[in-house]
From TrEMBL:
The chain crosses the membrane at residues 23-45, 57-82, 88-111, 151-173, 193-213. It is a multi-pass membrane protein. Its main location: membrane. InterPro entries: AA_ABC_Transporter_Permease, MetI-like, MetI-like_sf. This is ABC transporter permease. Belongs to the binding-protein-dependent transport system permease family. CysTW subfamily. One of its GO terms (cellular component) is plasma membrane. Pfam families: BPD_transp_1. Gene3D superfamilies: MetI-like. It comes from Neobacillus notoginsengisoli.
Length: 223
């Protein structure tokens, strides 16, 4: 089957549903990634050698856990987390279930980005804050997060784009969203119309998010 405009129009309700399911999955997993990944990234940085809360034990344990999760291919992680997903949401299919695996994958990914952004801060700024008697919490809140906010926003943008790709992959195991639509119609039914449409939607979505993320990142960059 070639590209058929009339057929595409008939599938608009399915495309809309899949698109909103994708946004739903990304929204949940991004929120979890930021809430958990941000402090994890901060801890990875401040507990490193030579920093004001140096703790090699915590740094090594946390770093190992982050690297371990990041080393597992997402499709394997989806399967491995089925018991956890079942325990949390009561089902293993649908966008809510897929959000569990997406969140677990996104947390270490975003944490490492945060850590990298913090490492770009000039050590002199931190030393100056310590010299003025700033507490560790004050340094984190008023120095680290303030200085690294542009890099963190860029990290959020990169995390969203990665989640779009992961969410499409989640469709292969009944996670819903654009990926699920592409598999059900484009692959199993050899429907080129829906395959092309889903690819275009994903490309446009990524481009819009990247442009918006770059704009915000530059806007908050005080350098």
């Amino acid at each position: 089957m070639g590209f058929d405009i009339q057929h595409l129009i008939e599938l608009i309700p399915d495309i809309n549903k899949a698109f909103y399911q994708t946004l739903y999955m990304i929204g949940i997993s991004l929120a979890v990634a930021v809430v958990i990944g941000l402090p994890v990234g901060i801890i990875l940085y401040i507990t490193d050698k030579g920093l004001f809360m140096e703790n090699r034990f915590i740094q090594n344990i946390l770093g190992f856990a982050v690297n371990m999760i990041r080393s597992i291919p997402f499709i394997i992680l989806l399967v491995a987390l089925i018991p956890l997903t079942k325990a949390i949401v009561g089902t293993t299919i649908g966008p809510t279930a897929a959000s569990v695996s997406l969140s677990v994958a996104a947390i270490p990914f975003f944490a490492r980005i945060v850590e990298t952004a913090l490492r770009e801060i000039d050590n002199g700024v931190i030393e100056a804050a310590i010299a003025t008697g700033a507490t560790p919490w004050m340094i984190i809140k008023d120095v680290l997060l303030l200085e690294a906010k542009s890099g963190i926003i860029s990290g959020i943008t990169l995390t969203i784009i990665s989640l779009i790709g992961f969410s499409a992959m989640a469709g292969t195991v009944g996670g819903g969203g654009i990926g699920d639509l592409a598999i059900r119609f484009g692959y199993y039914r050899y429907d080129n119309t829906i395959m092309i449409a889903t690819v275009i939607i994903l490309i446009v979505l990524v481009q819009v998010i990247q442009l918006l993320g770059d704009f915000i990142s530059k806007a908050v960059d005080k350098r």
